[in-house]
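FAQ: What does a multi-protein file look like?

Like this. Sequence, then tokens, then the next protein.
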Amino acid sequence: MIRGYGNSGFGHSFEEAVTEAPPGMADIAGYHRVLRYDLGGLNCAVRFEVDAVHGIPEAENSSQKTDAPPGNPVDQLTQSLENVAVGSSNRRHSYPGARSVQVIVRGTAPPQTQAAEIKSIRRNGKPLSTILPQLWFGRTPYLVRGYHDNGNFTLIRSENVEENLKDWEVKDQNQMALRGVVSLLGQLREVVRGSETKSCVAFCVGEKPLKLQVFSTAQKKMPLPEQVIERFWKTD
């Protein structure tokens, strides 16, 4: 029997029950990754949360080992972020105490091929088709599903869904939806480029039909430091 947290369901409790933190990582609240890949011609950096590693991490013998070869764009992007200054990109802080981001190396960096998503599902709950889009954007190959009745888990299923993701991607309706996402992202990029501050906020109006309203911010606020954007997206 697993107890839930108020109205939030049993997801967090189930994750804690079926996972074990690596040595030195017990106090970590969450694990996030950033993948860089081409999406319909757009050079995207996609951030997402990884719930667990499926199986024994292949990189457990090296606390700094990654699944990417040295010198590739992922490593370079990580190294660039390690030394960026905190604060506005158009001015440097001179007051005492100003410092750069401190990177604490801890744990391992298992390959993306071992990333797993964990879901707690009520009996006759979410079908696999409703979960696949999240896994597709995060390139997550493993799915762990725990089926329960009010917190009483009776079945845990762990499976590799790579073939399911391939089938999902090629379906006509999903291709149409993905092209729509690419088109929307492209339009948003052009709106931001045309704004005075080159910084915008998008707000989705919940009433149907859904509307996305975009507002220019009063001050320039970049998603990444300018030197990082200049290095990795300067040709876009």
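And here is the next protein:
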Amino acid sequence: MPRIILVTMTLISACFLAVSITGVSAVGCQIPGNLLFAITGTKLGFSASRGGIVLSYLFMQLHITIAFAVIMFPAFFIAERLVLGFHKESFAIATDEAAYQAMEASEAEKKEHAEDTFGASYKVPGNYRKAAALRIVIVAICTVIAIAWKDHFGDLLDFVGASSTATCCMILPIVFYLKTFNGTIALPEKIFAYTAVIVSTFLAVYVSINTGKALFAPVEADPSIRFPYCAGDYRKMVYTNTTFFNSKRALYGY
């Protein structure tokens, strides 16, 4: 499993790095926060193929559907445990004897036991409807939040990523690992783990504060500035407008 995680994360990181480098090298500081939204209009000074736009949105919808299900299912499971009292047996700590018997069981027996344990709560009359209602409420809450902050959705994603995702996926796993194996791991690994926790915490707090300001206390921006990360005239005019920039070069020599 560690090898699978290492290979998968390396491949994903390489793909994301390639996409980011390609976008920045082609568009520079005018690269939009969401390429899908950019290609549907003329923000970058060109009109993309309608077929390409449709395919891009279809593939993104496929990605979102799969990713949403993968990410939300643990939340559904935990919410059912906390709100409805389901899956208590899945969170029970096994005794030494039970753990020993589980190790001696065959793969078929383990699979059958896991299926029985997982689905036991849903087999009780009425529980399936309760679980379905709870999941619908959670999805509805997510939908309302997305609609309410639709104009600042990028800031919302940054805020959630910097606060919740950084805490759950980077900081807490390392902290739990150190708490469990602190006495057995080597010193270099400890140094790396503590450094990762400190750096991740600092970046998470920093980005959370900045994105929180943009999300909860937004400042009215200058409508003429379309690309705030650029300098000079590139803040207001797309770089593909050769008529504008050619005349400026002729007048000012740049």
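Q: Is there any per-entry metadata?
A: Some entries carry free-text notes. For the entry above: The chain has two domains: 49-150, 151-244.
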